Amino acid sequence: MDPILVLEQTLNGLQLGVMLFLMAAGLTLVFGIMNLVNLAHGSLYMVGAYLATAFFQWTGSFLLAVPLALAGTLLAGIVVEVVALRTLYARDHLDQVLATFGLILFFNELIAILWGRAAIYAAAPTWLSGHIELFAGLRYPLYRLAIILVGVAVAALLWYVVTRTRLGMLIRAGASNRTMVAALGVNIRLLYTVVFGFGAALAGLAGLMAGPIYVVQPGMGEEILIQVFVVIVIGGIGSIRGAVAGALIVGMVDTLGRAFLKPTLATVLSPSAADTAGPALASMLIYMLMAAVLAARPEGLFPARGGG
Amino acid sequence: MNLRARTLALVVVLLLLAAVPPVAALLDQPFYLDLFRRIMIFAIAALSLNLILGYGGMISFGHAVFLGVGAYAVGVLSHHGIQSGYLQWPVAIVASALVALAIGAISVRTSGVYFIMITLAFSQMLYYLGISIEEYGGDDGMRLTVRSQFPGLVNLDDGTAFYYLVFGLLVFFMFLVHRLVNSRFGMVIRAAKSNEARTRAIGFSPYAYRLMAFVIAGAMCGVAGALLVNHTSYLTPEFMNWTRSGELMFMVILGGIGTTLGPVLGAAVLLLLEDFLSGWTVHWQIILGPLLVLAVLFAKRGLAGLLPGGSRDGD
């Protein structure tokens, strides 16, 4: 196999992993702290993508559109939390799944009313389009490289916030014993709203970066949501380290599988058999990986410590 | 008294369903025959989900996958020229039982959120498999050119006969679930739902019982899938889309979780509501979504819960 191609696909895998991590971090934090299964997390990703596209069109500036879209998604997340999800924290997982499923129907239809059901075109800014020559022979899209860099920076920032700041201390304390944290005089409701908004903004960031490289259409959030579930199950629910590991593993396996499974199969099978089996297997690969991880470690690779 | 009210409700619902074909013929509205046949097919699927969700406490978010497996078993055999329902339907049942065994063997080991996410992920995996197999239509699905043939028994092209076949199967499965949950087997899965530690302490290992319930539910839903593909004469991966799984869960909840009649009522309410709202506006989901959220928040016991004695588990 061509080493340049392998390297390029590895970078693509890293880029997918970074996006999955941004989604998984919010979802796993919300689960770890509020014990809430939020299916509507994918809807916030969609909201981020649509808002960024709309703001970019209105203002003409990508640098202006990004903070506006992030603020919009943050706001949407807070509204959803206050209006609908707050009452769900005390309910069982079944109620949470069903209610957030109802929210997904609502959000998808709302977006369809505002922007139509067809996919819309989301452009990358001109200064991020084009390719960059990483070294001789490997020209990589600048935009995807930017996603990787932003993702790594956000992951570092998240690590700093969670482990080194007072807010992070409260988040970790809330995850291990929420009653005790409330008893110590912390406004736990406010903390929940902040964490949820934070997670929403991360999902919005993933969504707005996804716009120019994936399809922006109603329902786009659910496709990534289910991949994010696989990430979380592999990594261990409620654990940020698990989200990092799971996201990178899933991103790599999915990307490399789609790129190389068919040509690899073609060396042992007939070309037509490889044509059929390759894509089918590639699309199932991460789920089979999940099954294998679960068979060996039912709690995921990095189970959350403590009561969370 | 309570028991009598519930039995009465059950009899009334079944009589109403049985009366649909003559009434539809009288009003010259064959559309209703179609609609209620569809409702009963989904009622069978919801009934099977209720067995594991309502009685077993297993929140399976991938139950529609068995609709798909049952439908594909019929569709694929038909595609290769085997039209006999006597062969197609047993294959549908065995195939969905085997898929349920494979999915269940891994997912029943886990509980809580893991179980939800894993069942969802596996159903999605088979959904993508359905999309990627071009031979069987891929994304677009394929037509079922000939309905399952049951020579000497029933002709599915006769709308009324097909209706009463579905009706008979629905009654049979309601009876089966009722007997199952009140048997020793059903006692164990209900006990494991309400207190797993105590169930273990008195000497039962819930895993095997849960897995068995998962397989039975899968096979039963496979029958619903075989019925559905004959009903629509069409087959697409959308049968196992995860939104379909969500709808099945809502049918169970709206009707009343853990009751015999609940899934039937729930399937009727959800599908009639969808039909009504979609006749009213193309953006019906923007109304349905919040309605469902409100139902979860404020009407947890569902329609069957309105009947007296609704909280008893085994009725």
Description:
The complex is a heterodimer of chains A (308) and B (315). Chain A is mostly helical and 308 residues long. Chain A has one domain (3-218). Chain A is 75% helix and 3% strand. Chain A has helices at 3-34, 41-59, 62-85, 93-115, 142-164, 166-176, 178-183, 188-210, 220-235, 240-268, 271-296; strands at residues 131-135, 138-141. Chain A has a two-stranded antiparallel ribbon with strand order 1-2. In chain A, helix 2 packs across helix 9 (220-235). The longest helix of chain A is centred in the N-terminal third of the chain and has 32 residues, at 3-34. Chain B has helices at 2-26, 30-55, 64-79, 85-107, 112-132, 159-181, 184-194, 196-201, 206-232, 242-255, 262-280, 285-298, and strands spanning 142-143, 234-235. The two termini of chain B are 13 Å apart. Classes of the chains: A mainly alpha (308), B mainly alpha (315). At the A-B interface, helix 4, helix 9 and helix 11 of A face helix 5, helix 10 and helix 12 of B.
Beta content of chain A comes to under 5%
Task: Please tell me the overall pLDDT of chain B.
Answer: 90
Structural class of chain A: mainly alpha
Helix and strand pattern of chain B: HHHHHEHHHHEHHH
N-to-C order of helices and strands of chain A: HHHHEEHHHHHHH
Summarize the structure.
With 308 residues, chain A is mainly α.
Task: Using brief descriptors, characterize the structure shown.
heterodimer; A: 308 residues; mainly alpha; 2 strands; globular; B: 315 residues; two-stranded antiparallel ribbon; 12 helices
List the topology elements:
The complex is a heterodimer of chains A (308) and B (315).
Chain A: H1 3-34, H2 41-59, H3 62-85, H4 93-115, E1 131-135, E2 138-141, H5 142-164, H6 166-176, H7 178-183, H8 188-210, H9 220-235, H10 240-268, H11 271-296
Antiparallel strand pairs in A: 1-2
Helix pairs in contact in A: 1-5, 1-6, 1-8, 1-9, 1-10, 2-3, 2-4, 2-8, 2-9, 3-8, 5-6, 9-10, 9-11, 10-11
Chain B: H1 2-26, H2 30-55, H3 64-79, H4 85-107, H5 112-132, E1 142-143, H6 159-181, H7 184-194, H8 196-201, H9 206-232, E2 234-235, H10 242-255, H11 262-280, H12 285-298
Antiparallel strand pairs in B: 1-2
Helix pairs in contact in B: 1-2, 1-6, 2-6, 2-9, 2-10, 2-11, 3-4, 3-9, 4-9, 7-9, 10-11
